[in-house]
Design goal:
There is one protein chain. The chain is mainly alpha-helical. The protein has one domain. Strands 1-2 form a two-stranded antiparallel ribbon.
Length: 127
């Protein structure tokens, strides 16, 4: 028996008549998000490059968040996670999100340590 895919995106706010239209709609959304990333990368607004949050520029946080949004949406629509059971969706989606957040946490702390070592001079270790 054929399985009917849901022909809507953004939790039903945008509905399509066919799978082809839905693919074009998802492509348009992903292109808009990518265009925002490219424009921010070229312009680099001072308000986003001068302000820091958790040791990193706001512009970098925006890039990380937009990349996660694109990855989530690709998995959600093109890998058909929307049609799976809730427990499988959570296992597939939340695990990488927590791992990426953990990786960002580790990178920030290591970068802060390296910065302080270079700022204060090299440390002599007594073994």
């Amino acid at each position: 028996m054929a399985h009917e895919h849901k022909l809507e995106i953004f939790r039903g706010l945008w509905k399509f008549k066919s799978n082809t239209q839905k693919i074009w709609g998802v492509l348009a959304f992903l292109c808009v998000v990518t265009a925002i990333e490219v424009v921010l990368g070229i312009m680099k607004p001072e308000s986003l490059t001068d302000n820091y949050f958790l040791g990193m520029k706001l512009l970098n946080w925006i890039f990380i968040i937009l990349t996660l949004v694109k990855a989530y949406y690709i998995a959600w629509d093109f890998m058909h996670l929307r049609d799976e059971k809730t427990s499988l969706r959570r296992a597939i989606v939340w695990t990488p999100i927590f791992l990426v957040l953990y990786l960002v946490f580790i990178l920030l702390f290591e970068a802060d340590y390296v910065y302080n070592v270079y700022k204060d001079g090299f440390v002599a270790w007594n073994f």
